[in-house]
Amino acid sequence: MSSIERYIDKLGKSTGDAAAEAIPPLTGRKAEPRRSAQQTQSEVRLDFPSMEVAGMLTPAMSEGRLVNEYRAIKRPLLRNAFGGGAAEVPNGNLIMVTSAIPGEGKSFTAINLAISMAMELDYTVLLVEADVAKPSVCRYCGIEEPRKGLVDYLADPGLELSDLLLKTNVPKLSLLPAGRVHPSSAELLGSQAMAELMHQLATRYPDRIVIFDSPPLLLSNEAVTLAGFMGQVVMVVEAARTQQTLVKQAVSLLNPEQVIGVVLNKNRTSDVAGYGGAAYGYGYEPGKQA
């Protein structure tokens, strides 16, 4: 049994057996070279008071359980992202946050993780709203959903990334919104344009972490496609709700060579991994199964 399976079995002691929730065409044009983005063009303000009321992390928080939980969660991710782990992780600074089914708190986790990482002295963070069919990052942050974003960039070679990135009132945090709904979103996320974008995001800035809020793995082909570009994957599991079988089924869709972590969200006890609201555990090490 792999270490990720053992950890999922451990999580099973805190999860319930509730059932899972019911849940412009491509032109065929070859992607054209684009100029590199130098800076973001627009600014938005995250609604910190509303986020705090919703139980989310904000830059004003320096102590407390939520702050400490995300410090614990981000530390191994940062080590892997910049070569501080036991082994080199290709594209380790590309981190996908996902879940097995909807409603487990993946967007909540992605936003909190991005804000926590942006508070680091040595890194900048780009949060990508990659759940293109059901985007929620902007809504949770109190931002009006922009018209254009990731999907538009992939579909239109004439668009520049710098025109789509949003600078936020968290100094080191930028946002790439999902953009419009597209009937060929799965194909766009698996396109050469997406591969080129991932390379640019992974390599252009040596201090940048890119966090992707992904669709649930068991609900979307896009999530599996997106995972193929990632160096690290964070699986969010809702305590006392998500079935172990669903989590294992979702993990089986991922590349076992990737680093896969599990966040136990909405945990009201402290008997898993030593934390309260969000426990974190590791699965695979790159290149081998632990």
Q: Your description of this structure?
A:
The radius of gyration is 18 Å and the shape is globular. The model is unreliable at 14-40, 270-280 and 282-290 (pLDDT under 50). Helix content is 30%, strand content 16%. It has helices at residues 3-11, 48-53, 65-81, 106-118, 137-140, 150-155, 185-189, 192-203, 221-227, 244-251, and strands spanning 42-43, 94-99, 124-129, 166-167, 173-176, 208-213, 232-238, 259-265, 278-282. Helix 3 packs across helix 4 (106-118). The protein is of the alpha/beta class. It is built from ten helices and nine strands. It has a nine-stranded mixed beta sheet, with helices on both faces. It has a domain at 43-239: P-loop containing nucleotide triphosphate hydrolases (Rossmann fold), CATH 3.40.50.
Topology of helices and strands:
Layout: H1 3-11, E1 42-43, H2 48-53, H3 65-81, E2 94-99, H4 106-118, E3 124-129, H5 137-140, H6 150-155, E4 166-167, E5 173-176, H7 185-189, H8 192-203, E6 208-213, H9 221-227, E7 232-238, H10 244-251, E8 259-265, E9 278-282
Helix pairs in contact: 3-4
Tags for this entry?
9 strands; single chain; nine-stranded mixed beta sheet; 290 residues; Rossmann fold; alpha/beta; 10 helices; disordered C terminus; 16% strand
In whole angstroms, how far apart are the ends? 9 Å
Per DSSP, what share of the residues sits in E-state strands of 2 or more residues?
Answer: 15-25%
Helicity level? 25-40%
Strand order of the largest sheet: 1-4-5-3-6-2-7-8-9
CATH architecture group name of the domain at 43-239: 3-Layer(aba) Sandwich
Largest sheet: 9 strands, mixed
Derived structural class? alpha/beta
Q: State Rg.
A: 18 Å
CATH topology of the domain at 43-239: Rossmann fold
**Whole-number mean pLDDT:** 80
